[in-house]
Amino acid sequence: MKLSQAADVAALLRRATRQEILPRFRRLAAGAVRTKSGPLDLVTDADEAAERVITAGLERMFPGCVVVGEEACAADPSVLGRLADAELAFVVDPVDGTSNFAAGLPLFGCMAAAIRHGEVIAGWIHDPLGDDTAMALRGQGAWIETEAGHRTDLKVATPVPVGHMVGAVSWGFLPEPLKSRVTSRLPRLAAGMGLRCAAHEYRLAAGGHVHMLLYNKMLPWDHAPGWLLHREAGGYSARFDGAGYSPLVHGGGLIVAPDRDCWEAVRDALLGEEIAGPG
To answer: How far apart are CA 41 and CA 54, in angstroms?
Structure first.
């Protein structure tokens, strides 16, 4: 993907957030917030409207592409299966951090990733309130860019021992007994936090402001953009068993760290060595 095309996608995300998301922030009408799979899985009118704008824009910019949006998949789960065979596909999360958005908390993002033959080739995480976009192109680095074109390169944190790490551990979707094991071991980190927003957690990790992230639920619109952002910023990540990340695999968890040694240290400290697979 060309830089000019990446800039066009960033502009599309910005336009969708200005048109459909920000006007509804802290102004959601009665009935504008609904649950999907459960009480922790929300959707708002802003999610659905922004996804329609982004989908239509991507289809105009990349004729013949497949667009797999979070809300489209909620309505028809079979849409997710279109990723595997697509020559060019985009995954879209119009409002990542919907719970924060619905609560009026200014911590949410708009995400997209381009996937060619199952490989993530570009990623975007737009911050609607900060009005800048973290972007990555495979093999070309990662950076944050403003609407005016000011660019700041991203670089992951310097490796440190587990006891000095700050990280985000999303333990709510871990199965038992793994959930109890991980939560009991969180004090092995220097500090932990959870933003209820993978968009901003990945931006923090790619920018070197936190050392590690841990997730269990692996839907591609939540992770493909941030995974590439972190990778192109110099980081290392893998699933719990050591296998590499793929947007076509929706289980197995993910640990994100500055390098492979840190990844192994986090896995052993929080999950236990018995979890280890091929390494």
So the answer is: 21
Q: Are 61 and 134 in contact (CB under 8 A)?
A: no
Decide the pairing of beta strands 132-137 and 119-127: antiparallel
Spatial separation of the C-alpha atoms in residues 4 and 23, rounded to whole Å: 28
- The pLDDT averaged over each successive group of 10 residues in the chain (279 residues) is 94 97 87 62 79 96 94 82 91 93 94 96 97 97 95 98 97 92 96 95 98 96 97 98 95 96 97 57
- Note whether 193 and 168 are same-domain residues: yes
Q: How many CA atoms lie within 13 A of 198 on its CB side?
A: 28
Quote the number of domains for the chain. Answer: 2
Domain that holds residue 137: 3-153
- What CA–CA distance (Å, rounded) separates 128 from 106? 9
- Output DSSP code: residue 145: E
Of 257, 265, 268, 8, nearest to 112 by C-alpha is 8
| CATH code, 11 | 3.30.540.10
68 and 185: one domain?
no
Last residue of a domain, one of 123, 153, 183: 153
